[in-house]
Input
Amino acid sequence: MLHVGKYYPPVPGGMERVLQLLCEHERAAVDSRVLVASTGRKTTADVQNGVPVTFEVSETILEVTLSQPVLPHSSAVFVFDAEGRARLLIQPELGAADIAADLARLVGGA
Output
């Protein structure tokens, strides 16, 4: 399972620590990996407490066209294809028809 975050320890912060704890605890059950922004000038790879972490330097902004907006204080699940395009969006608050539309978009290759 790939977790994508802004930063990861040793960068301080609450979300960074939550991501670290999540990955460390789920390692027993799943192949958990982390991809985060680097605070340095080069891409580096490390293993912290058994969790492979890649600190990536990139000037690319992830831009995704959504069939439904992701509202504040909500969550969403994205599936990406081999080219890095978001192929599927599932939000818990969406109804079955909205999820079916995203599945149809995925299967249809749009």
Summary: Strands lie at 2-5, 33-37, 44-48, 51-56, 77-80, 86-90.
